[in-house]
Design brief:
The protein is an alpha/beta fold. It is 23% helix and 26% strand. It folds into two domains: 2-159 and 297-350, Quinone Oxidoreductase, Chain A, domain 1 (Alpha-Beta Complex); 162-293, NAD(P)-binding Rossmann-like Domain (Rossmann fold, 3-Layer(aba) Sandwich). The strands form four sheets. Strands 3, 4, 5, 8, 9, 16 and 17 form a seven-stranded mixed sheet that branches. Strands 12-11-10-13-14-15 form a six-stranded parallel sheet, with helices on one face. A two-stranded antiparallel ribbon has the order 1-2. β13 (240-245), α8 (254-257) and β14 form a beta-alpha-beta unit.
Length: 351
Amino acid sequence: MTVKAYGAHAADKSLEPLDITRRAPGAHDVQIDIAFCGVCHSDLHTVRSEWAGTLYPCVPGHEIVGRVSAVGEHIHGFRVDDLVGVGCMVDSCRHCADCEAGLENYCDTMVGTYNGPTADAPGHTLGGYSQQVVVHEHFVLRIRHAEDQLAAVAPLPLLCAGITTWSPLRHWKAGPGKRVGVVGIGGLGHMGLKLARALGAHVVAFTTSESKRTEATALGAHEVVVSRDRAAMAEHAKSLDLIVNTVAAPHDLDAFLSLLKRDGTMVLVGAPATPHPSPQVFNLIMKRRALAGSMIGGIPETQEMLDFCAEHGIVADIEMIRADEINAAYERMLEGDVKYRFVIDNATLAV
C-alpha cells in the first residue's frame, strides 16, 4: 500500500512530502493508522547524518501512536480500533539472552523503527512521519490512556522521553528514600522529573537556566539547582543516590559525579554528537561511584511504564505541529525552543 510520508533524500536536504510503500499485514502483523508521532532529537541526528550510517530516503519517527486498522490471521491480542503505540524497535532476533530477558533493546540484531534492515522496500525501515505502519505484534504496545490524551502519549513509550528515563529509574531502584538528580529539563528531562516524583523519590533538578526553576518545580522537582552556581552545586556534594543525565551536548561530567554518594551512579541517556570530556578517575574510585549508560527499554518494561503513566495520569508536555512544519521544528529544537516535545498531527500528511 502506498501512503503519504515526510522524509529526506540526503543529509543536506530538507524533509519533504514522500510517497512510501507499506507491506500488507502478515499473519503476526498489526497494521496501524498513525494518529500522532513525536519528534525526537535522534530524528534530527539521523536525518542530517550526524550519526553514522543513515540510509536514504530517511523517514524518521519512532514515537508512534494510533489505531489498529487491520490484523494478521494469527493475531489474538489486538483488535481493529485498539489504541496502540510503537517505539523505536520493530524487530529483534527474539532468542538471544537479551531478548529472552525482555531487553530486546540490547539485542545485537535489534531493528530500529527507521534506518534498520528490512525486506520491505526500500531495504531499510521507514518511520512514523507517515500515515501508516505495519509492525510485528511483539513490538506493538497497548495504550490505556484516555483517547483525548493520545497526542501527549506519543513521546512516552519511545526514545528520548518516557522509557529512556523510566528504564534507569527502575533499574537503579529509584523510589522512597532515594535522592535522584535529573540533569537537563527538556524532552527527556521533563519526563524524568515526572516519573521520579511519581515513583516516590526525592527529586533534584539541575539546569543551566534560572528561568527554568518554576517549571522544574511544577514538573515534580523538590529542589532546583542552577548548575552554573558553584556554591549551590557544592551544597549538594555527596548527596545523591542516582543522577539521570539527559543532556545531549558535551559537558563536564565531574561536576555532577561529585554530587553522588558513595556507591552512587550517574546514568547517561543523552547522546551528544561528539564525546564528553573524560571524567577524572579519582572522582570515581574514591567513593566507588559508577558512570553508566542506558538505552530505552525492552517491550515488557515499556508496557510497564505506559501502564504506570496511565494509572498516575502522566503524559508528556507537547506542542502540536503540522507535518509541513517539521523543518522549522528541527531548527527550533536546535535552539531549545520547545516545551517539551513536538508532536506531528499525522492527519496533516493528507493535506
